[in-house]
Amino acid sequence: MSVTLISNARIFDGVSVISEHGHVLVESGRISQISLREPLSPPADCAVVDASGCTLLPGLIDAHVHVFRDVQLLETAIQHGVTTVLDMHNEREWFKEINAITNQRNDVADVKSCCYGATIKNGWPSAIVRLVSQEQNLEDRISKWPNLTDKKSIEDYIARNRAAGATFTKLMQEDGHTMTLPFPERPVPTPSLEMQKMIVDASHENGMLAVAHALTNHSTLHVLRAGVDGLAHASIEPINEEIIQAFKKNNAFVIPTLVIHASSSGEEQETRDRFASGLQGPEKEHLLGCLHITSEKFSIKSVYEQVSTLKKAGIDILCGTDTSIDLPGTRAGASVHHELWMYVNRCGFTPLEALVSATSKIVDRFGFPDRGLIQEGRLADLVLVAGNPTESIEAIGNIKIVWRNGEAVVKN
Ligand SMILES: [Zn+2]
Fold first, then answer.
1. 327 alpha carbon to ligand 1 midpoint, in Å?
2. Which CATH number fits domain 60-370: 3.90.1280.20, 3.30.460.10, 1.10.540.10, 3.20.20.140?
3. Rounded to the nearest whole angstrom, what is the distance from the C-alpha of residue 107 to the centroid of ligand 1?
4. For residue range 28-61, what is the model confidence (pLDDT) as tens digits?
5. Which CATH number describes the domain made up of 1-59+372-412?
6. How far is the CA of 293 from the centre of ligand 1 (A)?
7. Which residues are in the Amidohydrolase-related domain (predicted)?
């Protein structure tokens, strides 16, 4: 295993800037030593990186993506400094395949998954997948999704997800209310409060966090009452005190996914243009596209208000985008930069707060003890960028080097 010394870097450790001229030694895939001032002497056969004028950060994390079996998503993410993604509904078999790949290769982002979401018959997301997917044998695939009906089916579902490597649970609370799509049933069937409670309880009994898809205030309150630990989207409706109190009661976090809200409502086209400018071909087209499925009654401005108000109320914000191959307006990695830019420029975050939301805050809330911070003993999943993204969030795009497990897999 290689040894690397990164010298003279501004160090953002995931929480704050701990040094303006610091030194980090990486050995056997982990951060072995940090010196905030005094230079470290390089051991024999050590690669030395002069990081003057650059900032060293923990690898970024996207707390909401859909990987499916799309290895390219993981290859692209890491090019943008995203070293871990959280997969929010996937086939168990596909996650196992993907997990085997991320265990073998450092040049892809790592994946934590919930495997199957807690789905019910004809509910979310089958209602939308049936409308938008061109996939052959789609019904075969959907027929394997959980069809939760009672406590026994829920316990069985959690046990099988765990056996497939799931580390958290994703609940679905979506009646299609905000969308203009021609769903066969309106409202789209949703689980009862009693069922969502049983899913949350079974997750907690198995030591797993429960996060939920919800897009409206009503659905958000429903899953918070069921006891979820976090929301996988911010609500698109104007925020009110009841929502704030419900978040506080659970100490719940929110993963805003402004990127997908903007694609759904067809807003932020100019900023999508900006973040697509470095891309080419199908990648660029994918990011420039948009879903345009939100009813005109709703605007992303309410989402900005939700996020900034929740943040001011002390609710944890975890960076996530809902990037997937099926969702135009998103692109692995580039969408994280876009999401962070919107936190700063639309929701009143400081650049530092935005970066915290994509690093330490996620590992803190999801309980991943091995990454997300520049700390001795943690994995050397690191990003070096030119300039200072803790003061100017645009600098996060100036990627110089990305390390995963101590291996420099991106060099610009
Ligand atoms: Zn999603």
1. 9
2. 3.20.20.140
3. 24
4. 999 999 999 999 999 999 999 999 999 999 999 9
5. 2.30.40.10
6. 15
7. 55-409
Q: How far is the CA of 88 from the centre of ligand 1 (A)?
A: 6
What pLDDT shows up at residue 134? 86
Q: List the domain boundaries for the chain.
A: 1-59+372-412, 60-370
- Asked whether 1 and 44 are in contact (CB, 8 A), the reply is no
- Strands (E) located in 13-90: 17-27, 30-35, 46-50, 54-58, 60-66, 82-87
Q: What pLDDT, on a 0 to 100 scale, did the predictor assign at position 301?
A: 95
Give the Å distance between the CA of 329 and the centre of ligand 1. 13
Please give the distance, rounded to the nearest whole angstrom, from the Cα atom of residue 316 to the centre of ligand 1.
19
Amino acid at 301: K
3-state secondary structure (DSSP) of residue 172 = strand
Q: pLDDT of 111-137, one tens digit each?
A: 999 999 999 999 999 999 999 888 889
CA of 369 to the centre of ligand 1 (A): 24
Q: Which helix (H) or strand (E) holds 213?
A: strand 209-213
Distance 157 CA to ligand 1 centre (A): 19
Give the pLDDT confidence score for residue 1 in this predicted structure: 58
Confidence of residue 346 (pLDDT cuts 50, 70, 90): very high
Q: Where are the beta strands (DSSP E) in 36-122?
A: 46-50, 54-58, 60-66, 82-87, 110-113
Residue 231, pLDDT score:
98
The Cα 85–Cα 62 span in angstroms is 5
CA of residue 22 to ligand 1 center, whole Å = 38
Q: How confident is the model at residue 286 (pLDDT cuts 50, 70, 90)?
A: confident
Gap from CA of 61 to ligand 1 centroid (Å) = 15
